[in-house]
Amino acid sequence: MEYSVHYQPGDGYLAWLQYRNPAAGGAGRYQEYQRIVAAGLDNTVLRTAADELVQGLKGITGLEISVSETIAASPSIIIGTFGADSVVDGFFSTEVSNAVQAEGYAIQTDNKTGSIVIGALTPAGVLYGVFHLLRIMGTGGSVRQLNILENPANQLRMINQWDNMDGSVERGYAGQSVFYENNMITGQLERIQDYARLLASTGINAITINNVNVHQTESRLLTDFLPDVARLAAIFRSYAIRLFLSINYASTMEIGGLETADPLDPDVREWWRMTAAAVYEAIPDFGGFLVKADSENRPGPFTYGRDHADGANMLAEALQPYGGIVIWRCFVYNCKQDWRDRSTDRARAAYDHFQPLDGRFMDNVILQIKNGPIDFQVREPVSPLLGAMPKTNQVIEFQIAQEYTGQQRHVCYLVPQWKEILDFDTQLQGKGTTVRRIVDGSVHGNPYSGFAAVSNIGNDSNWTGHLLAQANLYGYGRLAWNPGLSADAIAGEWITLTFGFASAHEPFQLLLRILMESWEIYESYTAPLGVGFMVNPDHHYGPNVDGYEYSMWGTYHFADCHGMGVDRTTATGTGYTSQYVQANMEQYESLDSCPDDLLLFFHHVPYTHVLHSGKTVIQHIYDTHFEGAERAYGLLSDWKLMKGQVDDRAYRHVEERLTEQAGHSKEWRDRINTYFLRKSGIPDQHGRTIY
Amino acid sequence: MEYSVHYQPGDGYLAWLQYRNPAAGGAGRYQEYQRIVAAGLDNTVLRTAADELVQGLKGITGLEISVSETIAASPSIIIGTFGADSVVDGFFSTEVSNAVQAEGYAIQTDNKTGSIVIGALTPAGVLYGVFHLLRIMGTGGSVRQLNILENPANQLRMINQWDNMDGSVERGYAGQSVFYENNMITGQLERIQDYARLLASTGINAITINNVNVHQTESRLLTDFLPDVARLAAIFRSYAIRLFLSINYASTMEIGGLETADPLDPDVREWWRMTAAAVYEAIPDFGGFLVKADSENRPGPFTYGRDHADGANMLAEALQPYGGIVIWRCFVYNCKQDWRDRSTDRARAAYDHFQPLDGRFMDNVILQIKNGPIDFQVREPVSPLLGAMPKTNQVIEFQIAQEYTGQQRHVCYLVPQWKEILDFDTQLQGKGTTVRRIVDGSVHGNPYSGFAAVSNIGNDSNWTGHLLAQANLYGYGRLAWNPGLSADAIAGEWITLTFGFASAHEPFQLLLRILMESWEIYESYTAPLGVGFMVNPDHHYGPNVDGYEYSMWGTYHFADCHGMGVDRTTATGTGYTSQYVQANMEQYESLDSCPDDLLLFFHHVPYTHVLHSGKTVIQHIYDTHFEGAERAYGLLSDWKLMKGQVDDRAYRHVEERLTEQAGHSKEWRDRINTYFLRKSGIPDQHGRTIY
Fold first, then answer.
1. What is the pTM of this model?
2. Which domains does chain B have, with CATH numbers?
3. Where do the Alpha glucuronidase N-terminal domain residues begin and end (chains A, B) (predicted)?
4. Chain B contact set for A544 (CB, 8 A)
5. Which partner from A96, A649, B292, B628 sits 20 to 30 angstroms from B189, CA to CA?
């Protein structure tokens, strides 16, 4: 099988790096910049920065671009790191150059010559500065008086691939893996390089290249496949992205020939030290390990009566000499729960498991915490573990892949959801202790902090299956760099870069509306009021109200003929609310103050319970589902106005997906409404058809 | 992979053909019979009969047995077909020999010599007589004054294998196929011969060797694989079993290179004529074709605007010159139904499709009709199509494989169910028009009639997965021969033949109770009152009340907070009841007369509806589920008393399955009870724990 890496108009392969001529801002706008000045091009990242700039400018201006090492009088784009004899020397004030941090950059327009100068402390900073400048040009912005200083808010800006070596992608909705086929690392490296480009252009600086569920073949990435891994590391290195591996906690047994994986066993520790040494021999800037242990049937330290800190520290010790880190996932819960047991609450699990271990983890261990306590539902509260371990490095984990939000067959722009999560005030250190500030490290000042997220790409020609799902990948990177950006600003950037529409144009506004409303629409016709799931088991696509109701997965709605929801209060329920600080706990604990959209996550209420909206729960279900399906049809009608405005191939592709979504939203509407009409016996106030 | 065809004590491989010494009747009982007299042994079936008799007698008496062609004075067993110069000539009165029909036999003890004589019209009859005699000896019966005359009640006594050439078995619960592996017919023929023996010993005379869902590879059984098929036919021929093939209706397109499968197209007809000729060239006594067409996504004549009669007759015409028959399945319904559409009723489908075609089918076409209108549920009414087409050959189809009755992990002896079905009075020709008489051809006198059933065997060492499931295979064959046998008589035979217990022994009675109660027990903890399904989709194992409720498969319970069941009355429902004759229709139509165990099949009633038993529907559900799970535990306790009474390996095997059943019955109980408590809000009168 060969990847089709050749760009075809409208197939989405170039994504937001189209570099059209003329750009949205009009033809000829940037044509004075035909010369790039750069030095130090033996550095691979600087070389990439210069190449990207050449390629981007060529596309935007339609002109040939020259690269030189010396500054001339004509307007140029000058790029380089700060330091004696640098080409950017003297363009920036000390104040500015001192304010630029690692990975940050400054961009200024030189008044005298009109040249644009990009300076940074590191080659990575230069690369990000170049992509910033190209983004300005790609969206038609002015470059006359640039005076930009940017540092990334988050130190770790990571992507997790859930790719398996057989070529499948766990929870992948965009084709097969671009990394693997036939239990080997692919020889088709061009597509991987193009992916690295896409990621770097949004600011991503780390990637785990294999699924957190590490099977036997993948265990050998650490050993037998290391030369191939090194080849991938070189590609990502040239885009300033560090490569990590997900490891099998029981590798010592699986591939190491030992009979134990006890983290306190000297032979186990020695095996990991040797293995780490070999990895760093092959990949000197290797990032480290991502670990899913004692979770969903994966092996872990529990087998040996050890805890997560023992397990993580053992690995961290092996990586420490090389500056490597261990990222330990907190997605740990009892997945063999008895549905009859209403006292066990999966939502509590991450906090209960990890919070007591605060202070026990080494400095080069990071805990990776899913944004919510369950599993990437369309609506969940924020995980109470975030910020609750002041002495421990933490990163937040998002899922760009739309596992529970339409699987890239429905449009669901997730940046608004992520924004809400980041803006949530944990109040852990008083008001203003937002998740955003916890995650960026400014609250606790721990050595490591940041974002991780499950990728949504595969070998579909447009990367993400649904073309509009590219906005989530783009948005994740942008948000990881700067969580202060607004969801619509990010969407706007993506629209202009991808389709070329300026913000004043009707198609821009139309697309922006589609994206910005899509999450709310998806939520409205699926599981109501924060209750979650109601999906088909295993593949998680499509409605099935009782799909997980009598299962061992700990995800229930407890609907009966009187009411529904999960009582997670401290007064009468599972006590989950007590994992929040007092103020938040009290808000969730009380029916008076619990937000409507999380009501059924926290409370079991009668169908006749009246929401703050003034509607009963049952009427809310009917209304949102009728409206949601109607609005899903509206997305399709809206898109039809785009005909002729976008490439025909792209038009038809999105039309087909939106048609499926519209039909499928009706199935959701009818199954949910029928289920609750049958169960509650309460008719729709408006007498609409419920089967 | 090699089959383990070597008998190990207790592994169940010999099934009911153990031929123990001493037999249940006591050692030495049959030791005077050391000599067999038989002639015409160049006939393959007579050869088999003699061989089986030698082997059986050897096992039972522990002595060497001689075979000769001439009669001596010492007591012998004399076998042969009637006719001049036959060894049996003169032993039977003309009255007796005239009363023996094809496949029938007579057995008499000769007063003068004490010899036992088995005479028949055909070699097949001799073979069945031999197995009858061995059954008498195997169960310790007296042979002093035998005077037996048996003719099979049913002409066609068929087994359908649902085996695929990749080695899988559709709805198989006993390992892989014994016929195929790696898309080839297996070279391991010994096991197939042993299977033929088992079948012939119960009276089976026809087998279809491949799944009714015929995929591309299997289509080529008709052509490329014909030499291998002929080898299998030879094995079955020696046991008087005719071989049939399931065919792909669209073979002309799939493998014939034509662009159509239109039954009226001359090229299509010609292709089938040529193909049939080639098949009969290879297998002169080939039985014919079994066809699943226009059913569950299989191709059929509908594509060309033709009907089932057109399709079946086209094939029948091709087979007619050779005496072959077409067996056309009536399992035809819309499997893409919209669950919102309550007017479409899958139960009606077979009758609606086929009944109007009565008189249109050729004489060598047989319609194969599932016993019930839905699909082998634990409880269904009898299919109204049975007997409703007086001018058309019909056979009834049972499923020995326990697809919906515990999948050979739960014990469920199905003979009592089949007996109930056979005893059902359709009243089509007045009172006494039982299904049994329709199926045996005595009501309408059509050329063909009989039984077909889906096999329950695979390459598990005991053939059927659950050792006790052997009783269903045995019972099916015995019932097909003589539907007048009682379920407990058949169970008793099987128990004694398999385990050696005489009927007066405690273990016999215990096992008999386990078998005889097992269907009722299974029914009691699964879907209640004839409503059916409530199983997990696809694999059909384990409880899932809403598993098919919002699907396209047409199998719903319509439970809401008030009540449940399907209104199939003519007055207010789907009109299904009108497919029965007036008297039966009236019985089902009225709540007063509809039997409790079919109530929810025919009616939608409130949970508070009072059954004839005096209980409400909801209390019936709770009671039967609590009792059923308790009784399932009782089966296990009962079996534990068998320790030491049966081979230890067999003991442990059955104990393990019954343990699983007991645990799983609790899961059924809790999921059904919880579902209906939540839905109805009506508590258990006895206050037992419902979650």
1. 0.90
2. 35-150 (3.30.379.10), 156-485 (3.20.20.80), 525-566+604-680 (3.90.1330.10)
3. 15-133
4. 546, 550
5. B292
